[in-house]
Amino acid sequence: MEVVIAETEIRFANYEFPGATVYPGGAVPVPEIRDIDPRAMPPEVRTVHGETLFLPSACQPELCEFRRRNAIPVRRRPDIWSDLLEPFLDTSFDQEHSRATEQRLERAGLSPAEVIEIRRRVQPVMVAYNFDSMLWEWVHLGLFDLLSAASGSLVPPAVCATLGDPVTLYSWAMHIAERTGGKSPSGTGSSSEQNSSTG
Asked: Tens of pLDDT along 61-85?
């Protein structure tokens, strides 16, 4: 993807994810931005419509300045997709860790049955993405990884097709990402955030 951070908007080109409002290109003006997280990996911009857009990590300094210039709130929300995709990491967890993950998902409003169904739906794609491709990620898989996998990054087309319509999948994934059960936006940032070069 290519991103240009202008004075009062962020412009996207070659955005990879079908279903995105900026696919394959477009712009998001400041009034449509709800909050951002420059420290996410990759950095995130969330719109008033509940969409999470991703920027290359190299854009972080510019994004921080853009946030300050336009007084955009920072929100470091829990990554619910990180918890949902945990079983597809190339590592193992003890019962205590797994129990804590399930409790976070429950606090976010996902029942155990829903968690099972979500993981069942994405399993073929995430297994292909992280194991069959020999990526072997063992620290973090999140929404960006799911969308990358669904868009064919490291995954054969036949496996991607198991997820159904890409636009519908994108909307479904965004809806789940919003169910964080987390904290409210943190305003324009604490003093430490305002003085930090990363947000």
From this structure: 999 999 999 999 999 988 899 999 9
Helix, strand, coil percentages (3-state) for the chain, rounded to 5, are: 45, 15, 40
Which residues are 190's β-sheet partners? none
The boundaries of the domain holding residue 134 are 80-177
Residue 198 above 60 pLDDT?
no
Please check whether residues 87 and 172 belong to one and the same domain.
yes
Do residue 113 and residue 170 come from a single domain? yes
Instruction: Report the distance separating Cα 85 and Cα 131, nearest Å.
Output: 13
Tokens of 47: 């719109």
Structural domain count, the chain? 2
For 66, the token pair is: 């853009």
Answer yes or no: do 87 and 69 share one domain: no
The whole-number pLDDT of residue 78 equals 82
- The residues near 88 (Cβ < 8 Å, ≥ 6 apart) are 122, 123, 126, 127, 129, 130, 131, 141
For 141, the 3-state DSSP assignment is: coil
